[in-house]
Amino acid sequence: MARRVGRRIFLSTAAGAALGLPFMPSLVPRDVLAQAVPPTKRFVGILAYSGQFVGDYYPTATPAGYQTRDQMYGGERSDGTTALHETMPGTPHKWARLSDFAQSGLSNVLTSALNPYLDKMLLLRGLDVLQGTSHGYGMFLGNNAACAAADQFESRGLGHRPTIDQILAYSDAFYPSAPKMRSLPLGTGSTGAISYSDYGQGGEVEQLSCYIEPQNVWQDLFGDFMAPDQPVENPNRSLMNAIHEDYTRVRGHRRIGVADRETLERHMAFLADIERELGQTPGASCIRPDEPPFLDVGYPWYEVSSIEDFRLTVSLLIDMAVAAIRCDLTRVVTMSLEMAITDAMGTVANSYHSSDDVAGDWHDYAHDAVDDANDHAHLVSLNKWTATDVFAKFMERLDVEEAEGKTFLDNSLVVMGSELAMDHYLLSMPTVVAGGAGGALTTGYYVDYTNLDGDYANPIMPWGVLIPGLPYNRFLVTCLQAMGLQPNEYERWGEPGYAHTTMFDNPYNFPDPAYDMSQLGAPLPGIFNG
Amino acid sequence: MAPMRERTTTGLALLTASLAGCLGTIGEPSADRTGMGPGSGGQLPDGSFVCDPDGMPSVSPLRRLSAQQYKNTLRDLFGTYGVDAPAEAAAELDRVPVDVGTFQIMDSRLSDQHVRAYYRVADRLAAAVTLDDESLRAVAGDCAVQAAPDAGCIDAFLAGFGALAFRRPLTDEEHDRYAALDDGTRDGREVFRALVFSILQAPAFVYHVELEGEGSDTFYELGPYELASRLSYHFWQSMPDRQLLDAAADGSLSTDEGYAAQVDRLFADPRTHETVQGFYTEWWHVGWLSAFPDTPAFHTFAEGTTIGEPGADHLAAMADEIHAMAEHFTFESDGSLRDLFTTDLSFTRSPHLAALYGVEPWDGVSDYPHMPAGQRSGILTRAEFLLNDSHLTHPIHRGAVVRRRMLCEVFEQPDPATLPDGALTPPPVTADQTTRQRFENKTRNQPCAGCHSQMNPIGFALERYDSIGRFRDEETILDEATGEILAYLPIDSAATVELGASGPREVDSGIGLSEAVVDSGMTEGCFAKQYFRFTFGRDEVDDDGCALEEVRDTLARGGSLRDALRSIALDESFRTRRVD
Fold first, then answer.
1. Which distant-in-sequence residues (6+ apart) come within 8 Å of B287 by Cβ?
2. Of residues A445 and B150, which shows the higher confidence score?
3. Distance, CA of A271 to CA of A282 (rounded, Å)
4. Using CA atoms, how far apart are residues B235 and B570, in angstroms rounded to an integer?
5. Of A150, A235, A270, the CB nearest to B16
6. Residues of B in Cβ contact (< 8 Å) with A270
7. pTM score of the predicted model
8. Contact predicate B35/B103, CB 8 Å
9. Which of A172, A301, A468, B117 lies 20 to 30 Å from A97 when distance is taken between CA atoms?
């Protein structure tokens, strides 16, 4: 579904300015609202780095009725984590209420700070990236080609694909009328976003740059804010049309090549976005946040001048994102946490993810955590910070009533993952979800898709064995369908579902029979309500 | 706002590029999108490029101005009128996405962030130059401050500012369209704000639009104004000056003599020096290290130097020395590529770096001092090149850099899953082994030995220089955690290197290695490729053979760097455009 911006679309976008209706429920009869108006859904993707340790991320507590895997299975299934015993209806998989682990907190990383939201969360275990090995900045949201150079996924045939947030951003089903900003990529540290996009045009896929400065988000989303009762036409808006036409003329020149034309059309699409944004007024209930200070905290960690400024930056980025969501200026947010905070040694310090293996960075901690208690403590602390200061903060700030007793969080999907999985590999991606996408997902459970009864196990881990579960692809399908998309809106490469399905033969992976590849296009079993 | 930063995979990439060269293939084209993996450019085994005089040059895609070109152009355009655009729009310019790639100019991506940045900058500068009378008068003349400027005032503005921004006179159609903004709905000031705002976002400003000239729809000679722009962005990374535009207007640029005269003039301009220094900086990764390590081992290692003392800025001095060396051989003398690799002159003015070298700092007036006899020659033996972010050297890294960056050989990275366990882990420090011995032991067996036999000897020949570039006869082995000295072990820098088609060669020092590198017959072609990528912003392909061979041949015949750098602009293909 290529998105070409012709003149008709360019003009019609102005008519799409009447957004904000979801924020004016008082204008709609309550019974109609409850029965006929589907909830407005939002997607938030948060990426941490360097993976997790299995015993720090998954529950290890044994409340009444529970045993550890060591006790229940023993042998190579032993890893110290809690074994689940209740079968998820209609599936062979096990699950447990997250609230069963509230007393201790879910885990060292997913602490009791998340307790207020356990009924709105899903902790998913056993979701594997089929290609295996190493860092995958794009794998979290479906561009498996975006990974550490050492993996050579590109030269092994994986082309770049849009991440699912960008599929949503350019979906007519997700955005019936165009928003002020199709997606809001945020980040700490690097300005390379975790979002990869073809801008809905089907052409080359590019990594987006992300906002790292809250003030810049404010300027672009709220800087030209027009109060609902004082609409003022932005004088630039009437000029954008002529600029757009200028590009149209060049595009039509006989000496413009095929690639040149694509470049110009892409440019024109962005101009159209700007014109549309200039013409929009926010909903009546939209509250303009105060303009944040310019903080410029520095990067990498040893350049960060103030931990408190860094904390404030992250908090303000979340504030800006939530304000944008609540004003319906965007429905898609991604956040890359390349820089985070550790207080493992009693002193609060920044860290960032660098592949340089520099002593003191997140990546280095992860590499050495098996043998080094201090590094292990740092790794846990960094991941705990991402869970409590980012993931939980998104939940907290979105968990306010939107309409009819449902909160923004209830209607959203807030996903936190990592560019690596357990113990720095890619099997069992750390995946925790909040919100239920307006009831599309069942929440409140810890679901284990690991095939503990299967034949495949890979004894290379320091903590035990790798045991396959389900392809992570199916989680992406779950997200897309929960957001209201049908397969024909995202299946573009002749493969079912989303993300690459090619499997590489390597020591960290499993052969094809480990997975039921016929179900790649199906949502995860047991939690998807349609 | 901090500029866009490249994701920090560099270290891993270097590590794997070196160690992972184990299974790689040298000399094969790569699918690597970073630009390190080029097309061949039609290169033959002897290093020369195939030039088909009857062939057409390669396709020149429509490109946006690079981030640097965009900023330079705004600086020069508004600077013409005394307006400091970089200062007026500092915050907005800071949000122009940074170009990333082997050479930044090779980043041809166009994202919404680019277009939003163009919008913000246009909005800011349009407001800045029309808000006060002085600026508006400067840009559009006295008539512009009238409440209702007449048509002549707008015509003059379009013929002046508009033509400069577009790097050519506006067409009648463009003129009429812009003039129509004065439709009675805007006051005079707003008319000019609208004009500046619109012009700064027009394709003729933001892109290298090259559509005019004699020829067919798919292959043609550039029109004079487009040729003027291509020349100025080639040499200056910015818009043409008035003289160049005048040469386009009066037709002299379209003559061989007039064109050559402009090439000479542009090349002599200080802006060309800046551009060429930018080329060397990116090619050699000058300034890549921002701080020395802060580890106990490094502190012990650096004892006896002034590193860390107030006022000591070794890293800046190392970068400055490279720039001074490049400046000397490129512009101050008829230096050759061989000079860059073999000179024993010291160019540093820094007493701190000079002390590391054991020379007197250059006083800026006298002849350059010579390095201590038998110790150094050219770029490969200078501290900036030898630097590592550790107290340890990384000989594999050094070897890989020489092969990839100086010889343009391509290492496909191996599949890490096929490597033995721990293959990518650096060998641990022990008191009884030098760095060379540790890496030799680590890589002596297959599958690593295959490619490491290509990289390691180069690095071993450079082992007489430590990780901050000091010459040494022995290696001090340090406890990494405590900095305690464990041992002093003698350096062995003897190695057999095989570079290009020149066969095995015994070397025992950086001097010998430098001679071998420059004798390999590959450096000239590599220089040609790197400069081609830098100036055209893309990888070379077979159809670019003529332009590449022009540069390579100039260097191979012992010609000067200056002539080589000018030669691409003098090649016929420079004046044409092919469309796909």
1. B281, B315, B319, B384
2. A445
3. 20
4. 12
5. A150
6. 110-112, 114-116
7. 0.81
8. yes
9. A468
